[in-house]
Amino acid sequence: MLGGLVMLAPNSATAADRAMPKLGKAQKWQVGPIHKPGKDDARFFCSAKAGFSNGVTLVIGRDSDGGQSLALEYDGDFFAAGATLPVVLNTGGHQQQSNALAATRRILLLGLARGGAIESQLMANTALDVTANQKRHIFAIGGYPAVSASLDECLTSTIAGEKFAVVKHDADAPSDSFQTSTHAVEKSVQRFTNVS
């Protein structure tokens, strides 16, 4: 079924075609630390981030207290900053309805339970289907078990005071523009995890 999404002819857009979700494949994953404890917060944070071919950047943030969040940075101003929006996540036949915080007009943040049904399906390399604000995107995650293991290694190393070299999965080093565009997402993940 997903193959049909890719094969749509560019000039044959019907109303049904326009309603189809945007399929995105990960361009690369990068895992590394994003925050060390300070006087206001004693937690360590690491993130896994990837740009997707559908124009969305996805960041999974994990902290030393066992918290985990998912941030999506869209390629347009779709949200009212500060608003809470309903989001539907589908993966591997499991559907989860949740609320997301619009950290900015482009960034949505939501909790992602460690070991929960959604993450379990991602471990099986199932695609993640996200609908928010009438926008639907499907992410061909791929490689999540290795990404998740690298997140755990990142936290273990940073908690122990060891330097953690950034780990890259599935591609070459990210470009400067990739790093710049995801910096805002990482900071939002950190702020969201601080509040939850």
Structure description:
- This protein is α+β, with helices and mostly antiparallel strands and 196 residues long.
- It is 27% helix and 36% strand.
- It has five helices and ten strands.
- Strands 1-2-3-4-7-6-5-8-9 form a nine-stranded mixed β-barrel.
- The longest helix is centred in the C-terminal third of the chain and has 20 residues, at 176-195.
- Mean pLDDT is 77; it is low at 1-18, 171-186 and 192-196.
Write the layout of secondary structure elements.
Elements: H1 2-6, H2 15-18, E1 22-35, E2 45-52, E3 57-63, E4 68-73, E5 84-91, E6 94-102, E7 107-111, H3 117-123, E8 128-132, E9 135-140, H4 144-159, E10 167-169, H5 176-195
Parallel strand pairs: 1-9
Antiparallel strand pairs: 1-2, 1-10, 2-3, 3-4, 4-7, 5-6, 5-8, 6-7, 8-9
Quick one: biggest sheet?
Answer: 9 strands, mixed, barrel
Distance between the termini: 37 Å
Rg computed from alpha carbons, rounded to a whole number of angstroms: 17 Å
Shape: globular
Structural class: alpha+beta
- Within the largest sheet, what's the order of strands? 1-2-3-4-7-6-5-8-9
SSE pattern: HHEEEEEEEHEEHEH
Proportion of β residues?
Answer: 35-45%
- Overall mean confidence score, pLDDT: 77
Number of contiguous helices: 5
Query: How many DSSP-defined strands?
Result: 10
Q: Name the helicity range.
A: 25-40%
Poorly predicted runs are 1-18, 171-186, 192-196
In short:
This protein has 5 helices and 10 strands.
List its salient traits.
globular; 196 residues; alpha+beta; 5 helices
